[in-house]
């Protein structure tokens, strides 16, 4: 597939990054995780170097290696989205150019965390960050839309201006966390002369989000429950609300397992879930993240069983 023709839509899991006991990248486990995701029937792409991969703790060279390993492991079976996560705009440009060479088919563009200090009042700052990335590569871009109250979310006017000005922006990953604004995003972006797709990452209320008309979803929870996400998305696309509700009832306990406070542990919990499911050998995280307590791991196990998973074995829902 030509990268220029990749259309961000459907179910796109964001993979985790396994580490060994020395907190180095565990390449064997990473390859196994990638292969597991790529073998899930119905997914549209895989994302690497996102929040789920603890990208904040990965060096430039580790991010390059993460893309290269993913490209090597999944070959041309499925498109590859690479996250661009840095507050440094010049570094973002360098990461984008690197990702294109390393084998990415599209980029997930995080906002610069510098903008948290009032950037919503200076849209030209957000524009400068996105422009530098867009000018460094012709890969399709997916803008990561944060909640407005985080200080990093793009106001609707800014978001529409960016999507209008830069034709390489093909989609947003919407985490606005506001159902009313989420629907506005879908309606307004779809109505542009060059429509921009909306990928939900509202994993805590995914069914509600999808029925508003999202073009897909991009979520770290897909690292564990991609098959359920595919089944839910397909049911919504088929206007089969009864089936969608049944699938959502299975997803709901996993939401309770992954997304309780504090949210900083959500991907930590997903690693523990994969260990419980026999799909990952160990759940190491890099500081400042810390190992979960045994009671919380036991809680995750109980909730995964409530969702219909068999823990501590290789059994799993779906087509693996």
- How many individual β-strands? 8
Low-confidence stretches: 313-320
In total, the number of domains comes to 1
Overall pLDDT metric: 95
Strand order of the main beta sheet, please?
Answer: 1-8-7-6-5-4-3-2
Largest sheet: 8 strands, parallel
Alpha carbon gyration radius: 18 Å
What class, by secondary structure content?
alpha/beta
Level of helix content?
40-55%
From the 3D structure, determine the CATH topology: TIM Barrel
CATH architecture verdict: Alpha-Beta Barrel
Question: Which H/E pattern describes the elements?
Answer: EHEHEHEHEHEHEHEHHHH
CATH class: Alpha Beta
Cα distance, first to last residue?
Answer: 24 Å
Kindly estimate the percentage of residues that lie in beta strands according to DSSP: 5-15%
Give the CATH H-level superfamily. Answer: Aldolase class I
- The helix count comes to 11
How does this model look, in words?
The chain has 320 residues and is an alpha/beta fold. It has one domain: Aldolase class I (TIM Barrel, Alpha-Beta Barrel), CATH 3.20.20.70. It is 44% helix and 11% strand. The protein contains eleven helices and eight strands. The protein has an eight-stranded parallel beta sheet. Helix 1 crosses helix 2, helix 2 packs parallel to helix 3 and helix 10 crosses helix 11. It is globular and about 50 Å long. The two termini are 24 Å apart. 48% of the residues are buried. The C terminus is likely disordered.
